[in-house]
């Protein structure tokens, strides 16, 4: 078995060579074939992860497999789409069987959690990088875009923010702490679970949505720009985990929650009359502000006064929320 | 404008930010959205091209853009699919505006020739590589797979083979020759035009098909294995261009035609009664052999005697058909 046949071997085991729901033809031909039920649209997103840019050198392959797929599927959650399949293009300097087996296991574990299946891919030799393209289905006209936020809507997020950015000193081996503190932070970084249930529930209700990958402030800026409105955020309402507070202290925790990326929780705008219904479904919805006339993102302190944001964006793991 | 906003700028210009036929939502949101007419399936293929593996260091960016998309769309032709859209994940060491503009022009030129539109993508910093995922539509149940070849079918190809492999000494700057000879060879390498019309015409007629990327012998081996048959190739019937003969001599031209990859012409198996009808449509169909009982690929000389193939496969541009 050649080096790269070895790779196909591992991924064939963790995938679907056969047809299944929505997948008429899987791995092994020139193309995969998908069926789409009448009245549905196909949602598609592509993400590349490069070693040294999106993850540290020599990452744990199991965790990398989990994270790579979780990050990609999160874009489907952000559109309110139901996962169907994904392709994986993997470039590797060499084909180490142990590495590949662990990576494929991590990928497969996240695939099972998201009910998504590997339908095709490509393997090449070169510096480690991954490009995943994910496919989901969504009822026609019900996809959650960034452009529909209406003045008066609530601004919400799908739970605590900042854990992934706060975990970076741990990911990079720069700091250590008790496991009770580090474990939830590292889990958020390495196994970001796409908020698929939340995304589905928001169909026909949220007026705009995305997943937070660049940081809350930067991503709210994307919604504001696409919708032609201003988003007002009450800083004190942005939820932060006790683990992050314990690990990073309040000032830095707040900074990570506002500007750190990689949380992959949803941010969305919602007409107020839908809030109670969605919260009663047990969905993790936190109101952090509202949509107003104007442009850009306005951050308010606890007295309702505008404050200067700590920084505007996030440049991948290397620069984090410093 | 930041470096990578610059990139988005170039590709937004060469693509569709707006909706259009089959594309309900293009670039700029978490996902693109595709519509699929009732009774059709979506064909999907992913290809990665890495500098130094699939193309030389410092390639001409215009030609690279053309070739990258042509190679990817060829997989749609091989399935008999009609192109709809593609995503581009590009990793670049730096964002040189001249390079990007030329690359985007090459990409756009091939996109227009194939009637396919850029619907999304990702840009990252790192060693130059490209991952394209292409989407096409095909009537349900009519996609051309590799697995249906029937004993007695004709084995055909979509025209002359070997030009792209024969061009490699030119691509690599190792040889020079008159332009009348080099131009058609280099064009085949850098601007492989997917055989979309041929693929469409073969729907419901060809029993198996693929595009020749690994070399005729290796790719016929894939059809033979997937279909559980043997493919018999009459060496003298494999068409070779006069340019290749002039540049490389007969022995090497033959070797390139049999074992060189990167031609991206179709190879397919066809019940004999369809041949005349298809040829009368003006399609470039050459019969080179037939499907027989057994397994693997059998190469016959002009006296009908089995001969040893020159080599079994092709390992990308570096090793070509040597």
UniProtKB/TrEMBL annotation, chains A, B:
Mg(2+) 5 binds at residue 214. Mg(2+) 2 binds at residues 47, 75. It comes from the Bacteria. Keywords: ATP-binding, Kinase, Magnesium, Metal-binding, Nucleotide-binding, Thiamine biosynthesis, Transferase. Mg(2+) 3 binds at residues 30, 75, 211. GO terms for molecular function: ATP binding; magnesium ion binding; thiamine-phosphate kinase activity. SUPFAM superfamilies: PurM C-terminal domain-like, PurM N-terminal domain-like. ATP binds at residues 121-122, 146, 213. Its EC number is 2.7.4.16. Mg(2+) 1 binds at residues 46-47, 122. InterPro entries: PurM-like_C_sf, PurM-like_N, PurM-like_N_sf, ThiL-like. The keyword tRNA-binding does not apply. Substrate binds at residues 54, 262, 314. Pathway: Cofactor biosynthesis; thiamine diphosphate biosynthesis; thiamine diphosphate from thiamine phosphate: step 1/1. One of its GO terms (biological process) is thiamine diphosphate biosynthetic process. Mg(2+) 4 binds at residues 30, 45, 75. It catalyses: thiamine phosphate + ATP = thiamine diphosphate + ADP. Residues 28-138 form the PurM-like N-terminal domain. Reaction mechanism of ThiL seems to utilize a direct, inline transfer of the gamma-phosphate of ATP to TMP rather than a phosphorylated enzyme intermediate. Belongs to the thiamine-monophosphate kinase family. Catalyzes the ATP-dependent phosphorylation of thiamine-monophosphate (TMP) to form thiamine-pyrophosphate (TPP), the active form of vitamin B1. This is Thiamine-monophosphate kinase. It comes from Pseudomonas leptonychotis. The gene is thiL.
């Amino acid at each position: 078995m050649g080096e790269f046949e070895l790779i196909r071997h591992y991924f064939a085991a963790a995938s679907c060579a056969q047809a299944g729901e929505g997948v008429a033809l899987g791995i092994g031909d020139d193309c995969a074939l998908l069926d789409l039920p009448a009245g549905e649209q196909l949602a598609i997103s592509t993400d590349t992860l490069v070693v040294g840019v999106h993850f540290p050198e020599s990452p744990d392959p199991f965790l990398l497999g989990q994270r790579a797929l979780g990050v990609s599927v999160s874009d489907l959650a952000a559109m309110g789409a139901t996962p169907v399949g994904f392709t994986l293009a993997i470039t590797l300097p060499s084909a180490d069987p142990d590495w590949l087996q662990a990576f494929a296991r991590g990928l497969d574990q996240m695939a099972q959690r998201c009910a998504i299946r590997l339908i095709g891919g490509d393997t090449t030799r070169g510096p480690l990088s991954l490009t995943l393209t994910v496919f989901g289905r969504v009822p026609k006209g019900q996809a959650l875009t960034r452009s529909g936020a209406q003045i008066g809507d609530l601004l919400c997020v799908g739970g605590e923010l900042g854990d992934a950015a706060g975990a970076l000193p741990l990911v990079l081996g720069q700091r250590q702490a008790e496991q009770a503190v580090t474990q939830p932070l590292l889990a958020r970084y390495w196994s970001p679970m796409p908020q698929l249930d939340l995304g589905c529930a928001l169909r026909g209700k949220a007026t705009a949505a995305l997943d937070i990958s660049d940081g809350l402030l930067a991503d709210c800026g994307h919604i504001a720009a696409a919708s032609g409105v201003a988003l007002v955020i009450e800083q004190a309402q942005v939820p932060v985990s006790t683990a992050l507070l314990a690990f990073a202290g309040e000032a830095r925790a707040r900074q990570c929650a506002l500007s750190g990326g990689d949380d992959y929780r949803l941010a969305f705008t919602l007409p107020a009359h839908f809030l109670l219904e969605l919260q009663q479904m047990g969905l993790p919805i936190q109101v952090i502000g509202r949509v107003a006339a104007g442009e850009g993102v306005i951050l308010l302190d606890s007295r309702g006064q505008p404050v200067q944001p700590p920084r505007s964006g996030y440049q991948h793991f290397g620069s984090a929320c410093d």
